[in-house]
């Protein structure tokens, strides 16, 4: 049937009872402690333990005797109540009272201490159904079926009485602090709650009688009848001012009773589908257990979520209906009672008990079971069953220990838990406070003593048992904590010392003892696995890291933890990251990283969030990380923290400052199916993850990992952060790598000097110096093996005070140099007296033996400093004496500066002169000395020649003028470049007018020119006055003067071609007024008045035609062009002018096509008249003009030049004895002999004679026979006639003539005759050498420096050499053969050679030397050939509708050229190419010397059309 049970207040015993009338007492492990049989078999309705756990009160149905079972005696003491049908039983929570209620409403109060019974009859009129004692105030609340509620004191006196709407089923006390009437100073319960028959809850403030009770009702059903949650089964107070309410329909609610939110449902959930029977609240874990139709569920009341793993289905309680739930007082066990009479105990929470040794973890997995796990290899737990529920456990490499009170059991760790019986059981004197194990030994702390002994006893184990300490008195004899590693035993004492016992030699290491000052008892020790570092926690909750390796002493080898927690529960050393230490304070983990090597020495850094700014600054915020409630950290391996949970299991949580370094924190590998957007987001996440990994690596000092991550990130901010941390940790090799990545060559070079530094202090000093921490660097240097580095640093920093102090201790020989440099610094800061002392100290410093230590190299500098300081302090005589004795140029300069500042000007000037500072000396003389003493000008004049300062020279000159020393003034003004003053002095004071004139002409100074102009007018030198007025830009005054003196020609000659338009207009008007039209026209032209100029030129007739043409050419005006043409063709005066004027007009107008045609006509006319030299010069001039203007030269014009030039140079070739060349050129000319009509017979005769001389017999015979023709024979020279006839008669005896020599064609590269001027492959014309008449060669090409015509370089050189050797050129001769050969008049006679180093060029007759000749590169020669030919493919008739011009081209351009001079290959009717214009083909008949009037008229019309077309275009 239904069972009743009750837990002992300490949770060690459980009393249970059912319908059989027997009470069972069991311990918490289920073992029977006692059985209490009742006198009757009536069911037990209530079991209650008193507050001390001494008595168990038993209420049996219908029994007026209440048995009291004594725990210590295990006997029953019957309590006779004399009451019938007791229904209620409750012990006071704070006193010895037991309250018993009856079915009649009576009450009995029993005091167990006094053994006094107080009956209260009629407390209620009906059955007392419920009641409860208060936690504070010892009050009793009772509820009765009479629908009343009473509040009574401990004696049963009624304090309050209230009537209710319904029968109360449950009543509770609480101290409701949220009540409006609650006094914060009171700890008594102030509120009563009652379940009114499942309908509502009553809240009654028992403190304030005026306040009416409040009734809480809950959400009604839709029909308004009853509550939708069902009836109230039970309620319980939890937290502050909140109620847990269970309803019959399976609901559990959290309701607020605060003044502001009274009745508000904070949480509501239905945990059972049909019904809720009861529930119990666990204040320790803040969880509630609910029993319903489907089983038992456990709910976390903080978030109202069910713990699914703790669900107890109905099957596990044998399908019995749960009637009662109760938590053990410690909240570890949930007891479930069923209607079937069964009681179940479920372990809901384990005692958190654990220990660790290296990677082994031992923890309490059940009340009497230990589990051991190797966390390094993640092995399965090895379970070990114990004989007791332990209070202390420990684990070693092979054993575990479990103890309670003074007994400890030792078990061996075996696979699968085999052989779980203890291998050793020890009972110690006193309570065991702490147990530590290693692989072989156990150390026990009991009664301020520590005892070490083997875990597994052996015959020799007695010798390996030792008790500590050996001292018997004082605080040293009281051990407060112990710690054990494989090699060492550590223990702390009440005196604040830490002792180290070495197990290997079984000896106490006296030199390693740590003593804290001020003394504070050692609370706990946490060594690392090797025992090389120990975390020490003292009674003041201070934490230190002790390094026993470096020895002990008073506060020696310790580093204090900053911001360590006050309540330290456990300290963990990470097993992998051995420099990471973690403190657990029950809620948070405080993490530190330790390094023994840094520029600041041993360092403890508290971890926290870290950021790296864009400038690479690392910001670490020391923080703590919260541990999930219910987890207790035991061990940490590489940031993975192993925790024991309240459920008795292990779990692993990642350390928040390690999580990005754990295997699961890696960068995601991109999948193949990632979209671009997802890939971009993933890349950003990866960058963020890499940044976090870098920061964690940096703060954990995993610098190589940080390097690898920085390589992936490759951002400057991370390199800067890593460089700073590497330097701080003195990792020079890594710092060099990082600075190379940053491109900081200077820092890399500085660190290279530190790579091989082994002394840590010296290395830390160098790095501190690089970071600018000079004080730390000095301390480190002084503690290093090279303390002189501190002195070197202070000297390099120019910190002389510190350097001097260090030198006095470290190296007295450096004192002179330091004093000298310090004195110079003080002198600069104008601390002169201290500077003087430093200079004198440099000279007077002595070593320990009394020897002066100032080296000779510094004596002079120190004396110089003494001299300067004496001068600055006013000891002028002594300072000057020292300066003269030292004879140092810089000292003279410095002395001059000092004396000048002190206004000792004479002495300062003297010092400057000795220091060769003439400018400074001159400034002092001029500014301060000669003002008052003119006699000192002579002294100044001696140095002014060495002064280049214009201002000083000018001021000195003024002083000289004032003193009448004009020569010195002139020299000074000349040095000052003030030539106007020089001119003025030369004119006014020195009578050197001509020199003044020359200076003004040279300087063109306006002011100087005005001085000279005034002077010239004063002396009636009007020409000079005009000249200098113009230089002074006074052109109006100059012109007026020229007019007044009728010397305007002087005015214009001075101005020349650069005359201004306004000036030219004035001059033109002047000349026009005096009827000098030629000069007037010229000046009108200069000012742009072309029409007036042309009009005046025409009035002048033939003598100003050239000027008229020039004006028209400048103006490019059509009307002016027509006016001039009318004048040239004779329309104005009826006299046509020379056709050369028409040609020159075309050139001036840039009508090059018409100019070319006109030039050809003129040249042909002169050629017909026998004026070959004139024709040659016209053609040459035309070609030059065209080439200079960039206009293509027509082939006809070039062929005319070739023909004329070939004829002209024949005479020069004959004179040089080159008869073959002369013959070849004459053969070229004779083929076009019709173009030389005036000298046909002479040319034929010369050809016969030169061919005869050159051995060209056949050619000589051919043209001799031509001379025998009737039309030529009479004109043959009588002296040569007989010889020519003989040549004709001897033809057949003469034989064949020699073939012409060949050379390379510059276009095709073929070998062709030397005098052939056409390429055989392309039919292009070949340029002709102006020296020989041969075609040009690419590798022997040059241009005449005068005419710019091509010539063979070698031939030109020979020509110049032959001309230099020849005598004055002979006059033209007409003799033939051995006598005179008749040569037509040719080029101008060769001028007399005035110098044997030059000759005249064959075109213009101007001087040229061999040095002027330059070989031309082949590519430049080829460009000239291209310009020479300009071949363009055109089809016949491609001119289109050229109209009249096309016809004119066909008439006047019969040799196959366009008007632009481009050679054209025309096609005949059969489509064959025909080249026109070859040399040797006559194209026109001879023309007269003068142009006919009709031709002049045609020319005029043609020019007008050409102008009109030009304007149109």
Q: What does this protein structure show overall?
A:
- α24 runs antiparallel to α25 (1048-1055).
- β1 (4-7) and β2 (13-17) form a beta hairpin.
- The longest helix is centred in the middle third of the chain and has 24 residues, at 676-699.
- This protein has 43 helices and 72 strands.
- The radius of gyration is 66 Å and the shape is elongated.
- With 1513 residues, it is an alpha+beta fold.
- The model is unreliable at 180-184, 666-674, 1367-1396 and 1432-1500 (pLDDT under 50).
- The N and C termini lie far apart (133 Å).
- Strands 45, 46, 47, 48, 49 and 53 form a six-stranded mixed beta sheet that branches. Strands 25, 26, 27, 28 and 29 form a five-stranded antiparallel beta sheet that branches. Strands 55, 56, 57, 58 and 61 form a five-stranded antiparallel beta sheet that branches.
């Amino acid at each position: 049937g239904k069972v009743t049970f009750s837990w002992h207040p300490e949770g060690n015993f459980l009393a249970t009872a059912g319908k059989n009338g027997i009470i069972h007492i069991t311990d918490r492990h289920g073992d029977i402690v006692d059985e209490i049989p009742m006198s009757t078999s009536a069911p037990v309705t209530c079991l209650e333990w008193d507050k001390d756990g001494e008595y168990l009160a038993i209420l049996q149905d219908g029994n007026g005797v209440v048995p009291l079972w004594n725990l210590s005696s295990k006997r029953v003491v019957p309590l006779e109540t004399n009451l019938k049908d007791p229904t209620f039983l409750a012990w006071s929570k704070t006193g010895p009272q037991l309250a018993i209620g009856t079915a009649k409403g009576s009450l009995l109060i029993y005091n167990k201490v006094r053994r006094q019974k107080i009956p209260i009859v009629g407390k209620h009129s009906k059955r007392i159904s419920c009641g409860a004692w208060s936690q504070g105030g010892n009050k009793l609340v009772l509820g009765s079926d009479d629908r009343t509620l009473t509040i009574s004191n401990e004696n049963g006196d009624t304090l309050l009485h209230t009537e209710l709407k319904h029968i109360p089923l449950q009543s509770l006390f609480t101290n409701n602090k949220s009540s409006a009437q609650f006094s914060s100073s009171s700890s008594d319960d102030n509120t009563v709650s009652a379940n009114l028959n499942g309908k509502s809850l009553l809240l009654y403030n028992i403190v304030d009688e005026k306040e009416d009770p409040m009734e809480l009702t809950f959400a009604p059903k839709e029909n308004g009848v009853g509550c939708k949650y069902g009836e109230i089964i039970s309620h319980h107070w939890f937290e502050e001012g909140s109620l847990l309410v269970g309803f019959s329909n399976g609901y559990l609610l959290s309701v607020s009773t605060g003044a502001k939110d009274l009745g508000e449902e904070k949480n509501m959930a239905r945990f059972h589908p049909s019904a809720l029977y009861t529930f119990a609240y666990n204040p320790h874990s803040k969880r509630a257990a609910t029993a319903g139709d489907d089983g038992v569920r456990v709910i976390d009341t903080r978030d109202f979520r069910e713990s699914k793993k703790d669900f107890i289905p109905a099957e596990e309680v044998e399908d019995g209906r749960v009637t009662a739930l109760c938590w053990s007082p410690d909240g570890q066990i949930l007891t479930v009672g069923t209607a079937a009479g069964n009681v179940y105990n479920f372990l809901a929470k384990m005692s958190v008990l654990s220990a660790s040794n290296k990677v082994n973890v031992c923890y309490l997995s059940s009340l009497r079971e230990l589990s051991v796990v190797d966390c390094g290899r993640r092995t399965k737990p090895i379970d070990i069953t114990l004989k007791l529920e332990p209070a202390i456990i420990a684990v070693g490499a092979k054993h575990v220990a479990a103890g309670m009170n003074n007994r400890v059991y030792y078990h061996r760790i075996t696979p699968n838990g085999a052989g779980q019986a203890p291998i050793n059981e020890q009972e110690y004197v006193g309570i065991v406070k702490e147990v530590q194990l290693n692989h072989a030994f156990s150390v026990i702390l009991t009664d301020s003593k520590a005892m070490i002994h083997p875990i597994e006893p052996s015959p020799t184990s007695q010798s390996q048992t030792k008790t500590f300490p050996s001292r018997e008195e004082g605080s040293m004899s009281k051990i407060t904590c112990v710690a054990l590693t494989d090699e060492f035993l550590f223990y702390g004492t009440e005196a604040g010392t830490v002792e180290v016992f070495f197990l290997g030699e079984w000896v106490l290491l006296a030199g390693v003892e740590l003593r804290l000052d001020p003394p504070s008892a050692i609370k706990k020790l946490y060594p690392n696995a090797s025992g090389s570092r120990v975390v020490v926690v003292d009674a003041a909750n201070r934490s230190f890291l002790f390094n026993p390796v470096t020895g002990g002493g008073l506060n020696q080898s310790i580093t204090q933890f900053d911001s360590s927690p006050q309540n330290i529960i456990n300290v963990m050393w990470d097993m992998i990251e051995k420099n990471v230490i973690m403190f657990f304070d029950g809620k948070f983990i405080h993490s530190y990283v330790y390094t023994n090597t840094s520029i600041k020495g041993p360092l403890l850094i508290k971890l926290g969030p870290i950021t790296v700014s864009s400038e690479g600054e690392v910001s670490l915020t020391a923080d703590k990380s919260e541990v999930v409630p219910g987890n207790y950290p035991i061990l940490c391996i590489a940031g993975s923290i192993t925790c024991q949970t309240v459920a008795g299991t292990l779990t692993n949580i990642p350390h928040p400052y390690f999580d990005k370094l754990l295997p699961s924190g890696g960068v995601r590998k991109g999948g193949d199916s990632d979209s671009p957007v997802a890939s971009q987001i993933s890349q950003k996440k990866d960058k963020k993850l890499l940044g976090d990994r870098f920061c964690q690596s940096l703060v954990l000092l995993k610098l190589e990992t940080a390097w690898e991550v920085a390589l992936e990130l490759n951002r400057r901010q991370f390199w800067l952060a890593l460089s700073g941390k590497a330097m701080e940790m003195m990792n020079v090799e890594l710092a060099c790598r990082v600075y190379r990545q940053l491109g900081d060559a200077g820092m890399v070079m500085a660190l290279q000097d530190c790579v091989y530094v082994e002394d840590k202090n010296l290395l830390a000093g160098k790095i501190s110096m690089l970071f600018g921490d000079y004080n730390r660097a000095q301390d480190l240097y002084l503690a290093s093996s090279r303390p002189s580095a501190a002195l070197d640093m202070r000297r390099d920093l120019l910190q002389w005070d510190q350097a001097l102090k260090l030198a006095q201790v470290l190296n007295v020989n450096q004192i002179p140099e330091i004093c000298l440099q310090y004195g110079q610094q003080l002198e600069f800061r104008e601390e002169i007296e201290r500077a003087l002392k430093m200079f004198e100290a440099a000279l007077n410093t002595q070593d320990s033996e009394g020897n002066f230590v100032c080296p000779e190299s510094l004596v002079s500098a120190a004396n110089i400093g003494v001299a300067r300081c004496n001068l600055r302090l006013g000891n002028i005589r002594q300072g000057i004496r020292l300066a003269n004795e030292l004879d140092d140029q810089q000292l003279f300069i410095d002395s001059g500066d000092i004396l000048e500042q002190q206004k000792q000007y004479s002495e300062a000037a003297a010092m400057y002169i000795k220091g060769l500072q003439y400018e400074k000396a001159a400034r002092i003389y001029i500014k301060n000395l000669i003002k008052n003493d003119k006699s000192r000008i002579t002294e100044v004049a001696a140095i002014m020649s060495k002064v280049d300062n214009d201002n000083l020279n000018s001021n000195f000159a003024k002083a000289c003028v004032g003193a009448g020393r004009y020569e010195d003034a002139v020299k000074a003004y000349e040095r000052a470049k003030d030539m106007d003053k020089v001119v003025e002095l030369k004119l006014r004071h020195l009578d050197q007018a001509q020199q003044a004139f020359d200076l003004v002409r040279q300087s063109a100074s306006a002011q100087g020119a005005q001085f000279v102009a005034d002077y010239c007018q004063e002396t009636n030198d009007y020409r000079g006055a005009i000249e200098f007025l113009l230089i002074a830009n006074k052109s109006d005054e100059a012109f007026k003067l020229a007019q007044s003196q009728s010397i305007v020609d002087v005015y214009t000659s001075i101005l020349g071609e650069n005359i201004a338009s306004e000036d030219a207009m004035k001059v033109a008007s002047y000349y026009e007024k005096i009827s000098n039209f030629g000069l007037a026209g010229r000046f009108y032209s200069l000012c742009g008045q072309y029409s007036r100029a042309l009009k005046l030129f025409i009035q002048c007739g033939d003598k100003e035609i050239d000027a008229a043409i020039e004006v028209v050419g400048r103006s490019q005006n059509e009307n002016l062009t027509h006016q001039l043409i009318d004048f040239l063709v004779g329309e104005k005066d009826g006299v046509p002018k020379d056709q050369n004027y028409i040609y020159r007009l075309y050139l001036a107008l840039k009508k090059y096509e018409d100019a070319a045609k006109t030039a050809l006509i003129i040249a042909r006319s002169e050629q017909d008249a026998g004026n070959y030299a004139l024709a040659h010069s016209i053609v040459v001039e035309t070609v030059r003009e065209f080439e200079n203007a960039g206009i293509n030269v027509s082939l006809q014009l070039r062929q005319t030049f070739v023909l004329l030039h070939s004829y002209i140079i024949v005479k020069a070739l004959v004179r040089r004895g080159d008869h073959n060349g002369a013959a070849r050129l004459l053969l070229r000319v004779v083929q076009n002999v019709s173009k030389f009509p005036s000298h046909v017979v002479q040319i034929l005769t010369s050809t016969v004679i030169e061919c005869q001389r050159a051995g060209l017999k056949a050619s000589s015979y051919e043209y001799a026979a031509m001379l025998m023709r009737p039309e030529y024979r009479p004109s043959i020279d009588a002296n040569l006639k007989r010889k020519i006839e003989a040549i004709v008669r001897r033809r057949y005896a003469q034989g064949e003539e020699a073939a012409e020599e060949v050379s390379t064609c510059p276009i095709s590269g073929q070998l062709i005759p030397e005098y052939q001027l056409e390429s055989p492959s392309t039919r292009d014309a070949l340029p002709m050498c102006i020296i020989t008449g041969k075609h040009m060669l690419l590798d022997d090409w040059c241009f005449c420096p005068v005419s710019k015509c091509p010539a063979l370089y070698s031939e030109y050189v020979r020509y110049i050499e032959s001309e230099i050797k020849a005598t004055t050129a002979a006059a033209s001769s007409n003799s033939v053969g051995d006598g005179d050969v008749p040569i037509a008049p040719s080029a101008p006679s060769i001028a007399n050679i005035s110098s044997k180093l030059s000759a005249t060029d064959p075109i213009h007759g101007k001087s040229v030397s061999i040095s002027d000749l330059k070989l031309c590169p082949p590519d430049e020669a080829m460009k000239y050939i291209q310009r020479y030919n300009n071949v363009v493919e055109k089809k016949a008739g491609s001119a289109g509708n050229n109209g009249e011009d096309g016809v004119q081209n066909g008439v006047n351009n019969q040799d196959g050229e366009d008007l632009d001079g481009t050679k054209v290959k025309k096609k005949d009717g059969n489509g064959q190419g025909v080249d026109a214009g070859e040399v040797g083909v006559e194209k026109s008949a001879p023309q007269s010397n003068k142009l006919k009037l009709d031709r002049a008229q045609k020319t005029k019309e043609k020019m007008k059309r050409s102008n009109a077309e030009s304007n149109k275009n």
